[in-house]
TrEMBL record:
Pfam families: AAT. Coiled coil: none annotated. This is Peptidase C45. It comes from Bordetella genomosp. 13. InterPro entries: C45_proenzyme-like (IPR047794), Peptidase_C45 (IPR047801), Peptidase_C45_hydrolase (IPR005079). It comes from the Bacteria. The lineage of its organism: Bacteria, Pseudomonadati, Pseudomonadota, Betaproteobacteria, Burkholderiales. Residues 103-326 form the Peptidase C45 hydrolase domain.
Length: 339
């Protein structure tokens, strides 16, 4: 169902309710078979979870209204839904893998490409949404059932692009849950606004935010984790998988899987061969690469992280315009103008 965006508009709570309804009937059977959900259950009612809730509500009240609406739309207890939103803040082996590529071509064109990797059970069970909350630019994003949009890939109608790579941290620190922060980025008008928001709020979990904008020539990689917010300017191109790679992250305690190492190395090796004439075709070829035991494009039932590629996105920023091309395991399924 995911290639054609589902249009949602209204107040923050109404947006949340509609997002919840979209996931109703999909989230419960998924959680019933999910080892991750079973591992999360002991955290239910824990004081630390209450602290994360307080941080989210205080820092991002509008996003919290969406969250409460989502719980209503799902007919799910808010405490249970919060537990699911905080999965990556509580458990370092939490799913949601991904590979992202940023590349700058001739004449100012920029691309952000992304493989969204997650539980194979969810292939074909996610959605694209076009959300217009009324008090923010609104956005188009890939949405998991029962999760705030933003932590996969998306772009808003102010022209801001975000692709997320999960980072598995081994330390916990009270802060705003990472899914709330990723969602909040899509409310930002500019790159500077997004970076300031990420730097301002303490972070409970780890993510890499690959950021671009239709009307800004910069491409930025932001490694956001407890005690760290590292911002790197991308001059030509960069790849990122599921572990921190910035120089300032050397002392951070993180879980690095063999797949994440292999995908990072493979894409960097491919990009070493690119030149100024490289662009969309090369990015897509890299994201659809199947070499090795831990390939970039993941569709094996025996994937070492238990994940598969659920969708591939390619954002193009050219002459102030922004478009999104969507692929399902190599086949283009949608082309969407954003700005």
């Amino acid at each position: 169902m995911w290639p054609k965006p589902v249009s949602i508009s209204g107040t923050r709570r109404r947006v949340g309710i509609e997002l919840g309804k979209l996931g109703r009937g999909r989230l419960e059977p998924y959680l019933d078979q999910s080892p991750l959900w079973a591992a999360l259950r002991p955290w239910c009612g824990h004081a630390y979870l209450d602290e994360l809730a307080g941080r989210a509500q205080s820092a991002l009240p509008a996003i919290w209204q969406e969250f409460e609406g989502m719980a209503e739309g799902l007919r799910m207890a808010p405490t249970d839904l919060l537990l699911w939103q905080c999965r990556g803040d509580l458990l370092h082996p939490a799913a949601d893998g991904c590979t992202s590529i940023a590349w700058r071509g001739r004449d100012g064109v920029r691309w952000i490409g992304h493989n969204e990797d997650g539980d194979a059970y969810l292939h074909g069970k996610c959605a694209m949404v076009d959300v217009r909350p009324g008090d923010a630019p609104g956005y188009v994003a890939f949405a998991y059932p029962g999760s705030l949009p933003g932590h996969a890939f998306g772009a808003n109608h102010a022209g801001l692009v975000q692709a997320i790579d999960s980072v598995r941290m081994r330390s916990r620190r009270p802060g705003v849950p990472r899914l709330f922060l990723a969602r909040a980025v899509l409310d930002c008008e500019t790159l500077d606004d997004a970076v300031q928001m990420l730097q301002t709020h303490p972070r409970a979990g780890g993510l890499h935010h690959l950021l671009g904008a239709a009307n800004d020539p910069r491409l930025l990689g932001v490694e956001s984790a407890p005690g760290l917010c590292s911002v790197a300017s991308i001059e030509r191109g960069a790849a990122h998988t599921n572990h921190l790679v910035h120089s300032g992250a050397a002392t951070m305690r993180q879980a690095v899987t063999d797949s994440s190492r292999a995908r990072q190395r493979r894409v960097e090796n491919l990009m070493d061969q690119w030149d100024a004439d490289s662009g969309a075709q090369q990015i897509l070829a890299a994201l659809q690469d199947t070499e090795g035991d831990a390939p970039v494009l993941r569709h094996s039932a025996n994937d070492p992280d238990g994940e598969n590629t659920l969708a591939t996105a390619l954002f193009e920023m050219r002459d102030g315009g922004l478009s999104l091309h969507l692929y399902d395991r190599g086949k283009e399924v949608a082309s969407l103008p954003i700005v």
